[in-house]
Specification:
Blueprint (H helix, E strand, L loop, with lengths): L5 H21 L3 E7 L5 H12 L5 E7 L4 H7 L4 E6 L8 H8 L9 E5 L16 E7 L6 H4 L1 H5 L3 E5 L11 H11 L5 E3 L8 H13 L2
Parallel strand pairs: 1-4, 1-5, 2-3, 2-4, 5-6, 6-7
């Protein structure tokens, strides 16, 4: 006899996520769930995205970390509302956590909520947060073989960001092999090569996101 303890957890999560998705839709808020490993540049990508979009959209950020509030403080330092979620060891965010976070945000005044999920390439893929889109960030130093090792996160992503492309000459990153892997796993997902710190490529990524926010 096999007992599936995971499915009831996912079912409960998905039910609440559906409620959140309706709540976001009622308030015309676009929600982006960012997935990535630690050190991939999630926060720097968020800051670059905010700089590109803040003149048109009202933005808030939900920061998910096992501990600390370092990233949330960086976001607040840019004058953007940020809510910190510390999971206390859990490797992903769940819809119940997001519900508590948005209860302190004024949804009627927001156009975009960016969720920075816990740094992990496995656990967050299974958990619906009521988002409109999941986007995966991979940095060049992590290696071109990550789609082969962690196919699930690439398959669930609506778009993929390749960050730190300015370091490509330093690392043995086979861009052609990486793009071929993405094409096999998720041919519908656009790929945005960027350098979040220098701003290279951010405009194309930001415009893709802006178009979706406008249609939310």
């Amino acid at each position: 006899m096999k007992i599936d303890v995971k499915q009831p957890i996912l079912d409960k999560n998905d039910s609440l996520a559906a409620e959140l998705r309706q709540r976001f839709a009622d308030n015309h808020v676009f929600v982006l769930d960012l997935l990535a490993s630690p050190g991939s540049g999630k926060t720097s990508t968020i800051l670059a995205t905010i700089d590109a979009l803040r003149d048109e959209f009202n933005i808030a950020v939900i920061e998910g970390d096992i501990a600390s509030s370092v990233d949330a403080e960086k976001i607040k330092g840019q004058g953007i509302a940020a809510v910190q979620i510390n999971t206390g060891g859990a490797c992903h965010l769940e819809s119940a956590m997001i519900k508590r976070a948005i209860d302190v945000l004024d949804l009627e005044r927001l156009d975009l909520i960016i969720i920075e999920n816990v740094g992990n390439l496995v656990c967050p893929t299974d958990f619906d947060l009521g988002e409109n889109a999941k986007v995966m960030i991979l940095s060049v130093p992590e290696g071109d073989d990550k789609p082969l090792k962690y196919p699930g996160v690439f398959q669930v992503s609506d778009a993929i960001i390749l960050n730190k492309v300015d370091t490509m000459p330093v690392f043995n990153f086979d861009r052609e092999a990486f793009e071929a892997s993405i094409a096999r796993l998720n041919p519908q997902a656009p790929l945005f090569p960027i350098s979040a710190t220098s701003g290279d490529g951010v405009e194309a990524w930001a415009e893709w996101l802006a178009e979706r926010i406008r249609n939310a």
